[in-house]
Protein 1
Amino acid sequence: MDMTLLIKAAIMGLVEGLTEFLPISSTGHLILVGALLGFDDEKAKVFDIAIQTGAIFAVILVYWAKIRDTVVALPSERQAQRFALNVVIAFFPAVILGLLFGKVIKAHLFNPVVVAATFIIGGFVILWAERRQQTHPASARIHDVEAMTPMDALKVGLVQCLAMIPGTSRSGATIIGGMLLGLSRKAATDFSFYLAIPTLIGAGAYSLYKERALLSMADLPMFMVGLVVSFLSAWLCIRWLLRYIASHSFVGFAYYRIAFGLVVLVTAWSGTVASFLNHLCLGAKPQAVLTLVPMHLQMHWEDKAKQQRHG
């Protein structure tokens, strides 16, 4: 196996683990980093989805006690049955709408302007949700996932479907959406993690099955490296995030989304066509490189769109 490919797999795994559970869109960051690394063919797309499983193993590890107790109590305890039912209810809207509209969304919404707009809009929604809970503490009526009703779960599941729009962020949609629906920051974050388990495992298994013809045993080392790095980085990120939200809001992530979205919009509308790689090879300053990153991403998306139109 090519060592360069394994290093790329490790970098992608690191990006996945660090961004999957933060409200900043892991897909957007994976597309960006994959484009910069030249790791963006059809097999790489399958890889991006498959390594989400590593991040999910981290969730299972962090929440193992709760998951184990729920499974053990399922046959006899009503509370465990309701919790499991809530996760299933919240999971199904994404399955149904994903199968119905997934291809249409990929064909029409995967472009830099849409991604930039969702980054910016998502940032302002986060600011609104945080201000709402700060000025109206009573709006957070649910402080533990056990107190959620099936209707609460369905609403969060419907909000999760917004993540099919590139740049939205699955975790951002479920956490911030949950807060707007009456969950506390902690309860919304916990339920987002639980909901991620069937959602991301299902997406990974479906992608591997659908694109199995692209894969071979020679790809196993690459996938294993990505999974392991994704697991380790996600485990660290989850533990950090749970400590962070105990005393902080998501406002910092909102400003990050807005700033990143504005940079993408400016470069998309500027018509700049200079080559990112040539600029990098000529020793560009970091500030200039950061400015050209969204432009390179724009060129990458435009190439992909042309391939789809002529494919």
Note: Confidence is low (pLDDT under 50) at residues 272-299.
Protein 2
Amino acid sequence: MLNLNAKLIQKHYNKSSVVGRLKQLDFIYREIANRTADRLDYIKSPPPSVILDIGSGCGIDAELLSNRFPESLLIQLDFAVNILKDNQRKNRPKASWLKKIFGVPIFGLPGHHNKCNQYLCANALNLPLQSQSVDIVWSNLCLPYIDVNSLVDYFKEIYRVLRVGGYFLVTGLGVDSLQQLRDIGLQTFNFPDMHIIGDHLVKLGFTHSVTDVEYINLEYDSLEQLLDDIRIVGCGEAILSQSFMQKEIKSNASMTAPATSNVIASRASLPAAYLPTAFLPKTYLSKKNYQQLKSKFNELMNSTNKFILTLEVYYAHAWKERVHSTLPEDKKIVQFYPKK
């Protein structure tokens, strides 16, 4: 099983080139965000005072949440500080002649989505927030960057910061996601089974948990287009399999980059988060291996010359109805009642 490296993920998403190119894939986040927001229509609860958006990214979800809950404090949390800075810059209130004269922001102007936005750079596994301080936790496609072994810690933190009566909405990728990448010789992270997540939620004390699945198909015209998207965001450590590269891997000193090097030539071409530590510091994918990869890609194209990449998207929703205390197996809570 491949392991995610949090530091490398953070380094990758702090690159200015990646921050600027994430817009290429915003349609995926926006589509899933809208589908998740539809579930809010069926949730009956008072307007939230505080909303936490874990893995806020480019701010697509924040825009949606701000429009729906304009009076709520929205905390946008992300691991990459440069993405947060870019997002904050985009959401800065537009200057008006009133602001220039009086020196104060005028809320409600176009381009200012929420008068209570805050930005926080932190790890989702260690939220720097007080316990029971948040009414809604929202997290769209952050889970693919959480190692399977850390899933319990991720939901524990969500449970901790939620107020009693609060709830969360989380989306992630299921086990059937990116199967076509594996079919052409790429290797992907082992995504968690939705049922395992449901079991975790019950054990942690969440109530009324609901998990469901939808499938989204992405169409690609070329291998280059697919690899470009993988380099930008790559949900789940998509890398060249060791068996695929074992025979052809060579050091930089012993070979020159092939003509396709601008597509996938060097170790640096792929996001650092995708690369196992076993890889050599400087390696190239040979032209032969690239052609093999392209041949498999072409074999899987459909009758309309489209390569279909499937995302199994799961949605999880649950409530916190009480404070749940976790004790060792041999310990029990002793309750004392006043004498009548």
Note: The longest strand covers residues 207-220.
Protein 3
Amino acid sequence: MKHNAQRILPPLLILAAAMPGTILRAEDNIIRQTQLESGIQYDLVTSNNTGSAYSFMPIEEGGASYELYAYGSAWDTNLYFLDRKVIGHYLPRARITINTQDMWHDWFHPGLPPRTRADKPYTLAIKVWGLTDDDDAPLAAQKVLYTHVGQNYDETYTPNGNAEYVVNSFHMFNQEPNYTPVYTALVPMAPTKAMGIEKFTISSLADETIPETSILAEEMLTVWPVSEAFIDGVETGMTIRDSLPNLIIRYSDLYPLSWTYVQIYKGAPQLGKSGAIFNTTPRWHNTIVPQSEVLSIENWESMIGTDGQYTIEVVTITPFNNWQPERLSHVSFNIDRNVNVNGQVVTSEK
């Protein structure tokens, strides 16, 4: 039996959200309705940028899809696809929510996927509703397909040709969200060096009633590697008796939102201890991808007081660990610049 009632189109379908860098002409918005069973199509040209409208044809039992298109600006004659929704009798709904410890990302870079670090957990909450438990209903009305794929990045912080791979895929039924922390499922060469994109998708099933799948919800997560730092020019346990050597500091994969510096203090290594910061070393980053840099420290005699043991540390501060400092690298050495002269006193008498 056909479903003769007309549906109000989802407001998002009529919202002519411009593609980046494109100014859409309001008079050229097109909404295309396609009956999924018969394939019949109908195009509505509308001058509205927002609002709602009734479907142009009665929705068949198999459902209907609605696609939104819009032309570019006066000098851009390309027709842009903006959005798609499928409406039917037994179409489920789904929502995916990802929360990471880097809550500042949305403030500084709105519109980009949430991000985390390879060694830090995040929460993946999935809600599915609108499915039926009727065994006689079409499969698309009983369950949905969950797919989790990964794509590794290389040292350029891009896929650079790396293919996507399936991490997990299975059917889901109605469920409430679970906020249990999880860790990245990317497969890197080293666990702390995982970086790339993870994509979580919930799709409707195709069957004899709905001949094509539709993405019900999809979210992505960016994963960046754990930062590293290296100190060259002085080694742990060495004793410096003459002039101080030049130091080379190498920052590697600094988190996109981070404050990193090199400090020195007298004494053995001690986590959380504050020292004197080498004024050429602080780096504040608020970027989209990690940062790496090589810098030098010269003429640092003013940072040394009396002889004894000293520690040099590379420290970074990120949104993780409640913005508490994290040590990336350290080296402990001794300063001994006392000069002992062995000799004898000789006197002569006349």
Note: The chain is about 5% helix and 40% strand.
Protein 4
Amino acid sequence: MIISVKKFFLQSKEFLRLTSLTGKTGFSRQLNLIQGELLPEGCRLVEAESQLFQDNKDKEYFWPAQENLSCLIFPSNFNIPPKLIQVARQKRIALFQSELPLDNLRQKMREVPLLFQEKKSVIPGGLIRVYDYGLLIQGDSGIGKSESALELVSRGHKFISDDVTLVEKKAGKLMGKAPSMSRFFMEIRGLGIINIEKIFGPEAVLDEHTIDLVVNLKRWEEGAEYDRLGLSFPEDCHLLGVCLPKISIPVAPGRNIATLIEVATKVHICRLEGYIAAQDIIERLNRALAKEKNEFSQTKK
């Protein structure tokens, strides 16, 4: 399958946590996805600086023309000299750097071909079953998605995937599961990689589950306007042609995210059953105002 560098970057940047160091340079060039290969033809994962030099004496950056090289990917701990970026721009080669260390990056790259399958997609976000509903938890890197998921698992909810979810459309519904390499694993900053099944037991994990609700964790912005009554309905989120409700939760220091996710799920269930607390309190207020108005009218008479 022939794809552009631009398409490769846009569809894998969340999964591999990529940043382009050369802007849009090389985006129009092509890559060849070959089944069974770790990387597309024309793309190289740079593991050591020596891979960039023709020989260790000259220390001149090179990319042989016969390789038809279109982009390079670097792990998080790779120090990229400005000269390398300059040479890459001249040769129209895209440079991408990941936030992941080399071992994690190499592991995730095995799942990259799944990003380009028509009936499947790898979606950023972890999947947790809360009160029998599959929640796809998304948000910015470092906002606390995995920590919240860990807290939910400790409360008895079921873990399916962390960080990314392999989504497949079946009979009009979306089924989510973890990529095979990361099944039952979770990454927690400060602890590293942990195995949820080994820690909490087999009853704490599921192989797959439907995706019923998208929960987006976003950073609290001072001065921003937020819905304080709950009158606004969830946004629509379209995945693989399926429309899902999406709830956004502002995250600020001191807020218990796991509890907010549980309550958001309960609120969603109440809405599905036809009950909306904000409408209930407005109706109560209207009845109280109407009663007060009626009593005032009778007093005047």
Note: The mean pLDDT is 83.
